[in-house]
Write a structure and sequence with these properties.
Number of domains: 1
Number of strands: 4
Helix content: 10-25%
Order of helices and strands: EEEEHH
Number of helices: 2
Structural class: alpha+beta
Strand order of the largest sheet: 1-2-3-4
Length: 106
């Protein structure tokens, strides 16, 4: 059962790790809600770096971890909605590239 976290206040007490500018509360957008937390996306208004954060609701408030990214919000959502790549699929790509059947542009 998912909780509606949009009713919770969005307040960020975080600074951008790239330029040390304070993240604006309005720059954070919830992109997925789960029963025990949420996934949010923020963009630094100063340097433009993106951050994806997984936040869990604890008795003292939200606790989370963030990852810097060069993806924009829509790209993060697209990646989030894709299924994981299996080991067999990775192996097939390796075999096809080794045989010269599949070429990957670098």
């Amino acid at each position: 059962m998912e909780k509606n976290f949009s009713n919770y206040p969005k307040r960020i007490n975080q600074r951008c790790p790239m330029c040390n500018e304070k993240f604006n509360d309005s720059d954070m957008e919830i992109i997925k809600e789960m029963e025990n937390g949420l996934m949010a996306y923020s963009t630094c208004s100063n340097c433009g770096v993106g951050m994806v954060a997984k936040l869990s609701l604890m008795p003292q408030g939200f606790v989370g971890v963030g990852v810097l990214t060069d993806l924009n919000r829509d790209e993060v959502i697209l990646v989030k909605e894709n299924r994981p790549i299996s080991a067999e699929e990775v192996l097939n790509v390796k075999i096809l590239t080794d045989k010269g059947i599949l070429k990957i542009n670098k």
